[in-house]
Design goal:
The chain is about 30% helix and about 15% strand. The longest helix is centred in the N-terminal third of the chain and has 13 residues, at about 15-30. The strands form 2 sheets. The protein has a 6-stranded parallel sheet, sandwiched between helices. The protein has a 5-stranded parallel sheet with strand order 3-2-1-4-5, with helices on both faces. Strand 9, helix 7 and strand 10 (about 200-205) form a beta-alpha-beta unit. The chain is an alpha/beta fold.
Length: about 260
């Protein structure tokens, strides 16, 4: 009986689920666990995130080509319909479906550093429609450090480098999180990692992203905007030191504990 963790990633959905999965897998501490990813590129670089074993899949329905009947499966995706989920529950034991509002942050983001970057902006690891560029002038007026994403087109990335004085490469993501005093982002996972580091995140909802984390963010004191609005952003920035953010701790990693118990690890 083997243990697998399937996570949905891709150029239209970003890496939020993958970053969370890497945090959970690290907590599980099972060297034999294998990550299944819907993106072969992510499977190739998973070791950089502390995931020792990883395999890329074309589509979610190909999971049984790798994981077999009776194996353990953690499933972090919204791809499956109710019938498919029911089949998975009968095929794998145990079968654990990770909820969208799960909080899990890798230990490295709880390091408290001197914040050397006043303001950073991270739209997300995916920007297939180049939505970031639609607010280019407003972003430049904020004098932000721009965090580049994993799935950006090469020509798009080159253009952004020319427009912004300071850019973080994809490989510098951790440095951006740990060094930024304020982070404006449309990545739910980046919000949590920023909070863990002791920073002050501002969340901007994307039309193509789930809103499942919004209520949790509000409970944590994180300002949430329904869309990019430079006037609202400026108001928040002027009063950000008055906002009572709730600090998250490593003990908030409840889902990881539940998964570990159910997998008997």
């Amino acid at each position: 009986m083997r243990t697998f963790y399937y996570v949905h990633t891709g150029h239209r959905i970003g890496l939020d689920r993958f970053r969370r999965a890497a945090a959970i897998i690290s907590y599980l501490g099972d060297d034999e666990l294998t990550l299944l990813s819907s993106d072969f590129r992510i499977a190739q670089i998973a070791r950089d995130f502390g995931v020792k074993n990883s395999v890329g899949l074309d589509v979610v329905r190909n999971i049984p080509q790798i994981a077999h009947h009776g194996d353990k499966l953690v499933f972090d995706s919204d791809e499956a319909n109710p019938i498919m989920l029911e089949d998975m529950q009968q095929y794998f034991f145990p079968f654990i479906h990770v909820a969208n509002d799960t909080i899990a942050v890798a230990d490295r983001y709880f390091e408290k550093r001197e914040k050397t970057v006043k303001l950073s902006y991270f739209f997300g690891d995916d920007d297939y429609e180049k939505d970031l560029a639609k607010n280019l002038e407003d972003l430049k007026s904020l004098n932000v450090h721009l965090q580049l994403g994993f799935y950006y087109f090469l020509d798009y990335e080159d253009m952004l480098r020319e427009e912004f004085t300071n850019c973080f490469d994809f490989e510098e993501y951790d440095e951006m999180i740990l060094n930024s005093e304020v982070l404006i982002t449309s990545s739910p996972q980046a919000v949590l990692e920023s909070l863990a580091s002791g920073a002050k995140p501002i969340y901007i909802q994307r039309e193509d992203y789930t809103k499942d984390m919004n209520e949790i963010f509000k409970e944590l004191g994180v300002p949430c905007l329904e869309s990019f609005d430079i006037n609202q952003i400026n108001v928040i920035l002027k009063t950000i030191n008055d906002i009572k953010y709730v600090t998250i701790t490593q003990n908030d990693n409840k889902m990881s504990k539940i998964i570990k118990e159910n997998l008997n690890l």
